[in-house]
Amino acid sequence: MFKKLSLLALPLLLAGCAGTFTNLTPTRQPRSTDNLYPVEVQFNSRQQTLKWHSIKPYIMVGDSLIPMKQTKLLNNRWEGYVPVGAAENSVAYRYKFEYEINSFGPPEPGSALSPAYELKVLDAR
């Protein structure tokens, strides 16, 4: 009986976790003079205990975390800039969101990590 209840509860646990990322960044961008490239992401979550005002979004490039800022008119979109060296033609990056979750007692920390994305930089011909 306990095994059956455990299996039934699993989808509920998974459905309440983290959220979904929608990368709004083109996969190819022309080379810029400052070696910085804009990226934008939309984050949605059904997790009712997530404290939206506590979200701290980052772009992850390797081990580096680059802070993002919220777009002006939309509550669930953030933007930032990814550096790509002048001698490089692409960069792999992810989005990491840290936030607080309401719980019994003080809020608990939570986070969500996106899949990996790749941005290709195109040289002018």
What would your notes on this structure say?
With 125 residues, the protein is mainly beta. It has one domain (2-122): Immunoglobulin-like (Sandwich). It is 11% helix and 52% strand.
Beta-strand residue percentage: over 45%
**What is the total domain count?**
1
Contiguous helical run count: 1
Beta strand count: 10
Shape: elongated
- Poorly predicted residue ranges: 2-16
Give the CATH topology: Immunoglobulin-like
Calculate the mean pLDDT score and round it. 88
Give the % helix. 10-25%
Category by helix and strand content: mainly beta
Indicate the CATH architecture: Sandwich
Distance between the termini: 67 Å
Largest sheet: 6 strands, mixed
CATH 4th-level superfamily? Immunoglobulins
Order of helices and strands: HEEEEEEEEEE
Regarding quaternary structure, what we see is single chain
Secondary-structure map:
Blueprint: H1 2-15, E1 20-23, E2 28-30, E3 36-44, E4 50-61, E5 64-67, E6 69-70, E7 77-83, E8 90-101, E9 108-113, E10 117-122
Parallel strand pairs: 2-10
Antiparallel strand pairs: 1-3, 3-7, 4-5, 4-8, 6-7, 8-9, 8-10
Task: Give a brief description.
The protein is mainly β. The protein contains one helix and ten strands.
Give a quick set of tags describing it:
125 residues; Immunoglobulin-like; 6-stranded mixed beta sheet; 4-stranded antiparallel beta sheet; disordered N terminus
